[in-house]
């Protein structure tokens, strides 16, 4: 398949026989004007690992291998993906059900290489008032900071909140610490008259609702 110009980008990206380098070259060819996208693709994969890692990398990390102009274009892919995630929602400013919450949280966490803990504050009609990244941790842990969450919810006069964080390491199943910290946050907010409706965990485009799976304390 290498060098086959008769195949368009979509055909290459969906092909089961195309290599990682060929798929990345097709992406580079679409987003940049580089003359030798295959060589660029091989160089990037050799230094950065996978297509996923490359797409998630900032322009500064890509520029040494393909130049700043091409790096700027290639690094624009992830913001486009995040925007598309938000456009999938019926109303990006309202979270009336779990399906919409899943899409909202995927848009927040798409491509994050480190764990991030978000609080989504909503009014009584589940209209989003404000969303805040409360803390950012390593690839395996993040602090929830219940007092900061409570302060934020009070500041924006939230009726309820959704919690959301990502697991860059792979599985979106909650850890024992996730369950423990969620219970602590829910108790604190309940004492302030604020409901904690769900805690959504994302990983590799998948989601896990702690409320749906019975991991939220009563």
Task: Tell me what the structure shows.
- The chain is α+β, with helices and mostly antiparallel strands and 218 residues long.
- The chain folds into two domains: 67 residues, DNA polymerase, domain 1; 119 residues, Cytidine Deaminase, domain 2 (3-Layer(aba) Sandwich), CATH 3.40.140.10.
- The chain contains ten helices and five strands.
- The protein has a five-stranded mixed beta sheet, sandwiched between helices.
- A hairpin with a 2-residue loop joins strand 4 and strand 5.
- The chain is elongated and about 60 Å long.
- The mean pLDDT is 85.
Any idea what the radius of gyration is?
Answer: 20 Å
Distance between the termini: 56 Å
What is the count of helical runs? 10
In spatial order, strands of the major sheet run 2-1-3-4-5
Largest sheet: 5 strands, mixed
CATH homologous superfamily placement of the largest domain = Cytidine Deaminase, domain 2
Helix content: 40-55%
Order of helices and strands: HHHHHHHHEEHEHEE
Kindly state the mean pLDDT as a whole number?
85
Shape: elongated
List keywords for this structure.
218 residues; alpha+beta; Cytidine Deaminase, domain 2; 2 domains; 10 helices
Walk me through the topology.
Elements: H1 9-14, H2 20-31, H3 37-48, H4 51-56, H5 59-66, H6 68-74, H7 77-87, H8 98-109, E1 116-122, E2 128-136, H9 146-155, E3 160-166, H10 176-191, E4 195-203, E5 206-209
Parallel strand pairs: 3-4
Antiparallel strand pairs: 1-2, 1-3, 4-5
Helix pairs in contact: 2-3, 5-6, 7-8, 9-10
């Amino acid at each position: 398949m290498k060098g086959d110009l008769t195949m368009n980008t979509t055909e290459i990206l969906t092909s089961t026989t195309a290599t990682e380098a060929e798929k990345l070259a097709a992406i580079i060819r679409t987003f940049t004007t580089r003359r030798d996208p295959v060589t660029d693709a091989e160089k990037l994969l050799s230094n950065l690992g996978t297509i996923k890692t490359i797409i998630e990398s900032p322009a500064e990390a890509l520029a040494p291998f393909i130049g700043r102009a091409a790096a700027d274009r290639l690094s624009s892919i992830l913001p486009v993906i995040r925007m598309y995630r938000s456009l999938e929602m019926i109303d990006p400013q309202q979270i009336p059900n779990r399906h919409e919450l899943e899409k909202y949280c995927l848009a927040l966490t798409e491509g994050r290489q480190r764990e991030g803990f978000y609080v989504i504050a909503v009014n009584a009609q589940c209209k989003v008032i404000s969303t805040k990244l409360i803390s950012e941790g390593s690839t395996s842990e993040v602090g929830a900071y219940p007092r900061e969450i409570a302060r934020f919810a009070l500041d924006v006069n939230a009726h309820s909140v959704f919690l959301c964080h990502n697991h860059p390491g792979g599985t979106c199943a909650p850890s024992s610490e996730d369950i423990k910290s969620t219970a602590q946050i829910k108790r604190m907010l309940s004492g302030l008259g604020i409901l904690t409706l769900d805690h959504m965990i994302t990983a590799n485009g998948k989601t896990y609702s702690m409320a749906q799976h019975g991991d939220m304390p009563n």
